[in-house]
Amino acid sequence: MKIALVQPARDRFDREKNIQTVRRLLGEIRDVEIVCLPENWAGVVTFNKPELERTLSLLGSYAKQGRYTLLTGSLIVESRDYKIALGHVIGPDGTVLGYTEKIFPSNAVGERAFLKPGERLPVFTTERVRFGVAICVDLFYPELIRSLAHRGISVLFNPSNIPENRIVLWRSLLCARAAENTIFVAFANNTKSFYPDDRPVSGHSMVVSPRGDVLFEADDAEGVYVVEIDLSQIAEARTRWPYLADSSSIEKIEGEQVVRKRQ
Length: 263
Fold this sequence. Notes:
Elements: E1 2-7, H1 15-26, E2 34-36, E3 46-47, H2 49-66, E4 69-71, E5 75-78, E6 83-90, E7 96-101, E8 123-125, E9 130-133, H3 142-150, E10 155-159, H4 167-181, E11 184-188, E12 193-194, E13 200-201, E14 206-208, E15 214-217, E16 223-228, H5 232-240, H6 243-248, E17 250-254, E18 257-260
């Protein structure tokens, strides 16, 4: 199965420029099943309901044109009395299938001062695969990813906006989440951009196998990176590493005592 990671050169505040960049990149994509945009690819900007609907409609036209499932990464959306980070999933017919919320806004960059913590962490299904989406720092919470794995995902997508000096750390997290759950993990990042504290954001989008091996890692160039993954590697990895099945056998942990489910 082929997936595509979109790594756009992002302007922090120019939404229209960023939308034109993403339109150009999406227009190039053919012959893939799932396409993933990064977090906040439109910039550090807020979408009201009409703006969000127009943007989703626009993105849906590209998904329909290319006949792929499109993950919109994450956009900051305002409601009546709060803002929240949402990552929508658009089907190959251009319709919105649902959305994931950013469960834990980043404390490090001050998101908790204005973003509402999310509550939705659904699983999505295409004709060939079940997948989940964990937005940016939600990757730090293994219990979130394990819950998706227990619900049958084969691929986790991690749309993010990660600075260059944290890529080594991020690579380690991606490899750990992939290996401990024996799933593929795909990370989409912005490039040619900056963090609020002026640290550079320089791409390095990547895909990790169920064995924890980095199958692909981009450099800092803007582009669309297509990666072919072999889903049969999941069963092979789980034959050797039954971590997911082992965790399912635990009913609870009380103090020092691990209580296993009765067989």
